[in-house]
């Protein structure tokens, strides 16, 4: 939810379509990052993926990493819980159950 200063209710900016794994849904979101363009990145823990919502397409997100089931492979997560970017645009994801942090180059 996004809250504008002085607002009495929030605005849904991602998900809001119930729990699930569709591109319009999240399942236990557990980390968020918003860049300077307003692009939203969400660690979608129970779907083992990181989603991106752009200002242009607010209706559904895009899977940018993960989404290949739970596991320990380089393209998998087991409950991602947090994320951040460095100044070079690399994405870092805390992969909770695999006890690791993974780095991805996002173009």
TrEMBL record:
PROSITE patterns: NHL. SUPFAM superfamilies: NHL repeat. NHL repeats lie at residues 25-56, 71-107. It comes from the Eukaryota. InterPro entries: 6-blade_b-propeller_TolB-like (IPR011042), NHL_repeat (IPR001258). Pfam families: NHL (PF01436). Keywords: Glycoprotein, Repeat, Signal. One of its GO terms (cellular component) is extracellular region. This is Uncharacterized protein. It comes from Rotaria socialis.
